[in-house]
Amino acid sequence: MVNIIIENLILENKKAKQWDSNYNDRGLIFTNHYGNPMTLSSVNRNIKLAVESIKDKDGKQIITKHVTTHTLRHSHISLLSQLGVSLKAIMERVGHTDHKTTLQIYSHVTEQMDKDMMSKLEAVGR
Question: Which first-to-last residue range defines the signal peptide (predicted)?
Answer without folding.
Answer: none
